[in-house]
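Researcher: I'd like a structural prediction for the single chain below. Treat it as a standalone chain; there are no partners to consider.
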Amino acid sequence: MRSIANTCINFTTKDVPELVKTSFKSIVDEENDGGHCYLYTANLIKLNGYQISGIPEFKNSTHVLIQNSFLYPLSTRLDLKIIINNLNGSGFEIDLKKQVSCDAPPNPLTLRNSVSFIPYFTPDLIDSQFPFEIKSIQQNRIHSVLVSSSRGAFYTFNYRYSDYIYYILDPSSNNTDTNLAFTLIDSWNRTTDFNIPTFLKDFKSPGVISNLNFYPSLSERDPSMSSIITAEVQGSAAILSVKKEFYGGLVQDEIKYMYPVSKLKGKTQYIYFSNNDFTYSKNGTLTAGAFNSPSSKTIKPWTAKPSKVFSFSSRSSSSVTLNQTQSLAMVNLIVDDLKNFPQGTPLLYSGGSFTFPTRFGIGKGNELSYQLSISIMTSFSPDVTPMFYGMILFPSTSNPDIKPDTTPPTLVDFSFERLPLNQILVRIKATDDLSGIKSILVEEFRVYLTLSNLVSGSPTDGDFETKISLDTPMGYVGLIICDRANNCNTFSQAANLGFYSLEKQIESIKRFQVEESSITMVKFESNNIDLSKFGAFNTFYLNLSNASPLIAPSVHFTTYQDGRQVVLDEFTVMSMEWDDSLKLFKKRFFLPVRLFSRNINYVIYFDGNLVSSASLFQQFGADAILSVHSDNPDEMPPIVTRVLFSPSALTINSGEITTITLTIDIEDPINGLDSGFIRIGSDYDSFSGYSFDFTPADAINRDPFFGTYQFTFTIDGNCRSQNYNIKELRLKDTSGHESQTDPKRINPLFKLYESPSLSMPVECTIALDTTPPQISSLVFSTTSFGSNSLKRQYKVTLTTQDNQSGISLRHNPILYLQTDYNEMIDYEFQLESYEPISKKAIYSLSSELPQNFGANTGSILSIYGIYDNHLNTNGYSANDLKNANLISFITTTITQGPYLGSYYPISSLDGELVLFGQNILGKDGSSSFAMIDYLDGNGYVKSTLIGLQTGTAISILRVVPKNKSFFVKVSVDGVFSNEILVIPVPEVDSSIDYCAGDPVCGGPNKGYCTGKLTGCLCYPPFSGPSCSNYNGTDGGNPVDPSKPDVSYDHLNQFQYEISLVQIKEINLNGQVLKILNFTNPWVFRNISTTTRKEYLYLSNITNGNSITPVSINLVVFDKLEQIIFAGNDYYMSPNSIKYVIAFGKYEFSSSLNHLQLVMGANFTLDSDLTCSAIGSGNSSATTEYFKLKVNDHYLYSRFVKLGVIDKRVQTISNEIVPKEQVSSSTSITHIGINIPFYQNSVLLDPDFSVLIDTNSAIDEPDSFCTTKVKDKKKDKLSTGVIVGIVIGCVGFTVIVIISILVYLNRRTILVKAIKMKDIIKQ
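Model: Treating it as a single chain, here is the predicted structure.
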């Protein structure tokens, strides 16, 4: 038994020391024997003149802080006292004036909420576990509760000191008990049995299980591929799971459910996948089976595929002084003949650890055998012993020019401040005696603060700030502060009481303490959703007894089951929003079409708390259930069924050129493929290779369900012998389900794991070039960056040369910038020109150095990724560049002056604008002010209504955007920041019901109301705002390949033509400054598939010396389809036509101006008796319409009033352009779509439909008719039919150029035709 733990401090007695105050903390002690309690105390003692020796926690000339621990047995009481010994060994007792007791929690243990039944939630494959809290554990953490045994079919377990119990079906069990049966044992060896009814009662008679297949079929497993198991079940549903056992006992066995993915021909398909991690075990077994189906149990042994042998011939290290005054050095590492080096292996050294990007360090040689050449910056570290973890130990370097720093930094102050949107502002003040702060890790959030977060002061005495999201669960708060010499200090609430000075503790975040009992309401707008035909928006509501609008919970829906750590393809967790009128939290979310019938699993996150849907069910019953069902479910991602290289093998001679074709069959029989990406590489070209983005329009048969795709590239005789194969493949179906060659995901190639067709050998007969390419020149526009925060731009020009096989123009080199505090940024060069005679390639890049990057010590440069045509590669570390007399170092200074980078959303009506950036506080915050330009012609207006102001944040009160974008900048210490364009969030009037008609939406046979704000969804052939119209006949194919105009002549009875007329630039007073016509030729491409007709047009418009690219996708729909746009869903009727119009960057004459896209509609009717009329109104909360009728025919134009400008939703407007031509028989109308000032690009999305109705223009107010019509009675026209055109326009602006997508993650620029669905999902 442990005795009282005393902290003994020697002192010379003068007067009696006195206790000032004590802090207490009960903690879990993993070493105790279960019959004791454990307590920490921190005691602040006034010395009263005592001179003490020893090392207390903290001390100054008058006070000392010492920490003590107490261990005391069960059922006892203890008076807390500590003894301080003096130099003579005698002690002085200090009474802490507190008595504690060690009481066991109530026994038997009970669940926090009474659990009468556990419903079936399709498991989340992230962890395949469900939590249930044990009552009283959270309040008293001085003991542990463990699952001592599982009974029944479930494997039940928990983690020591966890609040949750987890369970999962064990496929190796033959038990048929449908209850969850387990026993808990606490620290005092007391047991409690639980026996809870579960969903297994509904699966006691599973269907016939067949085709249980393992991929790969052989036992040997490659760690680069995921293990897949599939099965089919005919008849009743079944619950299947897989147990992955690891031999050797170093890691716990893994159990996951197989989940249902599709239903074809009466059979339900199931799938399981797992990544092959062989870190702790090289072999084991896979056991798959279904509950109450012994015959389905299948056991498969597995073993790790032998890895390639890692080797090298020699290694060396050196140190070069960069700045002796700053004790700044560059340590250089070289490894010769490196082979099979595992990418991602961290480098450890006295400056910390660092994991380098993929191609970083690859020097002379080729991808299979090369010289590793790396430079790193170090500060105040004269002796460095680097090593690649577990792989390479380098000789130590010693640099006498460098002064040592052995003292860790000090934490001076640490605080939090609540921000909107469930975020907090973290402020940290720290000092260091010599080298300066390198990094601060906020452990709870795994967020690093570096010198980029320095807002005032210097690295040796500075203030750091960052904002952190509270969307995820939080535990303790801890900090690890390191200086540039990697001396670190740790302060943590978990390890002790978290003091970082005599009286300051690590502050707990001001949390909204929530227990399940605090939740008073859980509700869905709809609990039962049919996803058979369309996806659906839904709203989740939550209320709490102590709700605070400032501290919002978050919610995570397990919508996709394919292993990704995302929700709804966009968010891991979604912060809920406070509804002030309802006085509760809510979150609108989208469920994709054809999810498998199930209860959706979801988790609510509070500050430091987590509540699952399974747990909420016990409190709120059916209200907590979100059930979806589909008649034809499909959650199986696209899968490849055939891969074929043609030729299958190749021998090529010098001077020859051969085209290689890779044919791939992709199957997704229900949802259909939406898009894909493939990268074909080789042994010596695994990083770049040949990349293709593709859609079903690129398939030979244009079939999204069973598509055949061909990818071609050429190999000339100036090459290297090697094998070609697929290096990367990503596929996504129309519902967002993904497969990837990433080993943590479902591999789309799993059915072909053992196929020899996945590889193609190539033999090149030319004499091999083994000399790597070289850099001949490197030019920086500037190598010194001062303190001006607005002058950070630079340009780099690189020239490479290879005198033998020549530079490979498919490979762009990469520039890396590194600091001495382990920050790195990289940029890809772009080819400017190639000189075939000199065999020189000239590259360039332009960029902007991030704020405070390099701080006051600068940055070293490295360049890697230079290839020649024989795939010899070369890379230059900073030391290599230095030795080649090239630029290897740039100097930097800590930036001064304010800089704005982002902002919180602000209402279009009014509100508080919160801006974020750098250096916003200044020396005298009271002198700061903001300047706002509302783009109303009055220029910048000064605002001194400043609320929050810190080093990284400032808020401006009473900002009134007036539904328009506006510019803002701030002045701090007399220096203006950059200006930033703010786009307000539009307010939508939610009080109006737009489901029109009597009966509503035409009644149940014609349509239904999707929501009062979104209006009616009509069943074909009905259409219109109230489903009172119906679709006309097929308009044929009205597409003109020479231009994106649509024209149609219906039996010589009526004709219509729709066209893009022009772009106007209009100033604030409505004056047209420029008219830009679409006079340049159009490039046409038919990108139709078997399910949709779609056509792409590319052109540009010339505005002075600038060119604005234009991209138009024209889509013809033959069935009812759902479109998701700007957070709303819209429906395209059969025979409708949609334009997707994209403009690139436009050079405005002034930011006060806007653009107007003019579309023309010519509508003619052959009749002697004609009338025409014009009307307008709102068809939903986000759409407006213009209605133009000619006799019994009408033009109905619908426009969405919301756009997304620079990635933010904003209100846009539409109008009938003056001078429309209206006669009794012809209506020629120009419709203007007003595009506000934007900075990058804009996308518009109008659609057209032919409708039939029973109303006549003669009945419209203010109709214009011929004399003959006026002489006739109106009822003679009232029985006629009206044929018209429905035009809907959607404005959508995004921050990147829409017609050209730039994919930075692959360091190549790829041009891709933009489809409306791609834009919507982004």
